[in-house]
Design brief:
alpha/beta; DNA polymerase, domain 1; TIM Barrel; 9-stranded mixed sheet; 11 helices
């Protein structure tokens, strides 16, 4: 039976306060709920012992505290975990946990599928099904906390889930409002309390939204670049036809608070014979010379039918050294989770696009933040 109660996860503080006002409750009730949901990790109103029993019962009748349901879990030989989460309408998206010795990052998805069709990306072969809500985005991290038992929010620096990278399925700046609200919830000091310096959002280059994101959220920023000429980037990443390199890099120069202490990361996938020459390295350094930047060089994570080949390790090493000699930090990243298709660009689910009539109904109800092509 479908649960028709409203979900409190994903509501902003103001939204939660309005819900309590509608119930005839004082504003401090919203603060209490926020603490229980995001600091304590409660999923049952009955556990909220600072609330009177009659109020807990009223809340349980009207609301739920949602989590995505786990459809499948895969574990890599290197310790990476990939979770396929199912949402209330049956659609699914993938989330990845990347463990390190003293910390760990959770890679969140913001859409089911993707609208961008980048040629090298497996996710891009799945058409956009729908945007995720703020609750579904932050709920992925909360479900990861459930799996690791990290409730209440640790305050002593022992977190195994210490970082968030918004690098999963979808283009987050095409689902701007939901992504913004989810990250604000994640950063709230009275809840999940993830420092903005431990959150990185990656975008393919939705130029009009980059400055707005910097002003309203201001986490670390990563740019999925992968080419140093418009002709090649047009081919690899069709979004470049709308927002070419000059416009994208200008937006990066203008990103609020970008500095040598908070450099923008440029992700550069090395493809054999396509973008890995010494001339490419020199041009990359030239284009980034006046931007507080670092470069992550990424080995290509192949997938069936992709048509691309990774650059050989010696070529990647020479490319990295050339950038280092030109003043750019440019390590070659070690791919994680390749054996379970959990590495960069490999995520995908079996969800299918919903009928147009249903999508329009969701738009009319305000459920979907539909800025695709309009941002």
């Amino acid at each position: 039976m479908t649960d028709t109660r409203a979900d409190l996860v994903g509501l902003t503080r103001d939204d939660l306060a309005r819900e309590m006002e509608e119930l005839g409750e004082k504003p401090f009730r919203a603060r209490q709920l926020w603490h229980w949901i995001y600091h304590r990790g409660a999923t049952d109103f009955a556990a909220m012992t600072t609330l009177a029993r009659p109020l807990r019962e009223r809340l349980a009748e009207r609301y739920r505290i949602g989590r995505p349901a786990l459809s499948r879990e895969q574990r890599s030989a290197d310790g990476t975990a990939k979770w396929l989460f199912r949402f209330a309408d049956g659609q699914e998206a993938e989330t990845v946990h990347i463990p390190e010795e003293d910390r760990g990052a959770v890679c969140l998805s913001t859409q089911v599928g993707c609208t961008l069709t980048c040629r090298f990306c497996h996710t891009g072969t799945q058409l956009l099904v729908r945007d995720l809500t703020a609750g579904e985005i932050v709920g992925q991290f909360m479900a990861a906390r459930d799996a690791f038992g990290e409730w209440p929010t640790p305050s002593d620096g022992t977190r195994r889930l210490s970082n968030i990278v918004v690098m999963g399925m979808g283009e987050p700046l095409f689902n701007y409002a939901a992504t913004r609200d989810a990250l604000r919830i994640a950063m709230d000091n009275e809840g999940l309390a993830i420092s903005r310096r431990r959150i990185t959002l990656s975008t393919a280059g939705v130029v009009p939204m980059i400055r707005r994101f910097g002003l309203e959220v201001n986490t670390d920023l990563a740019i999925s670049l992968h080419a140093v000429t418009d002709d090649l980037r047009d081919e690899l990443m069709p979004i470049n036809r709308k927002y070419p390199l000059a416009d994208l890099l200008a937006a990066c120069r203008d990103y609020p608070r970008a500095s040598n202490a908070r450099r923008i990361t440029f992700e550069y996938l090395l493809l054999k014979g396509i973008n890995d020459s010494p001339a490419d390295a020199r041009e990359l350094a030239r284009r980034l010379k006046d931007i507080p930047a670092k470069v992550n060089l990424l080995p290509f994570n192949a997938w069936p039918g992709c048509g691309y080949v990774p650059s050989p390790p010696p070529v990647m090493k020479r490319f990295s050294e050339a950038l280092n000699d030109l003043g750019l930090s440019a390590p070659v990243r070690v791919p994680r989770g390749r054996d379970i298709m959990a590495a960069c660009g490999q995520l995908k689910s079996d969800s299918r696009r919903e009928p147009k009539s249903r999508h329009k109904a969701r738009l009319a109800a305000g459920i979907v933040d539909d800025c695709h092509g309009a941002c």
